[in-house]
Amino acid sequence: MPIDAAMTLAGENVRLLGERALYWPAREALLIADLHLGKADLFRRAGIGLPTGGTGDDLERLTRLVAERPVRTLWILGDVLHGAAHRAAWYRQWQGWREQHAGLEIGALAGNHDRVLPKADLGITLLGERVQEGPFLLRHDPQPHPALHVLCGHLHPLAKLPGMQRRWPAFWLRDRLTVLPAYSRFTAGIAPVLDAGEQLVACVEGDAIALPAR
């Protein structure tokens, strides 16, 4: 079984999943950030050769995540798309996935890559730039809030484990702010410099590994 990281954020029990998602049991909600649908297709249209399977692989992982636990709602914390919503292979894959999960509520926050999202016809609810859910403020950019705990994406944090050269996608736990890793595997990222009290939880081959806090 995959190893999850149980955390308490803003008084709520959540689980950080090694497949780059956050699960909120009390709301039966799954949260991901930076899905970047169509990124590989966009690169191919520009003449950059890439292997196939990016969107399909990401959606297969998402299928497992919603099947392994009760999930009524999926929130995508921005950058649902990567660019122009051309009707390429990724779009057919998404439409097929959406039809298979027609009963799942999906809401999306606007990210910096989502300019054409309102016209993309993805079968999801557009929530604007921010929305409050209980003690959390959902948004894309990592902007703190004076009273709410912010759940966001955008930065694609990475963590390095002792003795390993590779950097892994990670949750970045900060004061009243948690940055989720990029859900798409076809992304780069940054290695954050931690302030006192901050912590990374690395996503390593399906397991969530909590690293020591600074």
Describe the protein's architecture and organization.
By secondary structure, the protein is an alpha/beta fold. The chain has a single domain (5-210), classed as Purple Acid Phosphatase, chain A, domain 2 (4-Layer Sandwich). The chain is built from three helices and 15 strands. Strands 8, 9, 10, 11, 12, 13, 14 and 15 form an eight-stranded mixed beta sheet that branches. Strand 3 (21-24) and strand 4 form a beta hairpin. Helix 2 (54-67) runs parallel beside helix 3 (89-100). The radius of gyration is 16 Å and the shape is globular. Mean pLDDT is 90; it is low at 43-50.
List the topology elements:
Blueprint: E1 5-9, E2 12-17, E3 21-24, E4 29-32, H1 39-45, H2 54-67, E5 73-76, H3 89-100, E6 105-108, E7 125-126, E8 130-133, E9 136-139, E10 149-152, E11 158-160, E12 167-174, E13 177-179, E14 199-204, E15 207-210
Parallel strand pairs: 4-5, 5-6, 6-7, 9-10, 10-13
Antiparallel strand pairs: 1-2, 2-3, 3-4, 8-9, 11-12, 12-13, 12-14, 14-15
Helix pairs in contact: 2-3
Feature tags:
214 residues, alpha/beta, Purple Acid Phosphatase, chain A, domain 2, 8-stranded mixed sheet, 7-stranded mixed sheet, 15 strands
| Overall pLDDT confidence | 90
**For the record, what is the CATH homologous superfamily label?**
Metallo-dependent phosphatases
Rg computed from alpha carbons, rounded to a whole number of angstroms: 16 Å
| H/E series | EEEEHHEHEEEEEEEEEE
User: How many DSSP H or I helices?
Assistant: 3
Percent strand equals: 25-35%
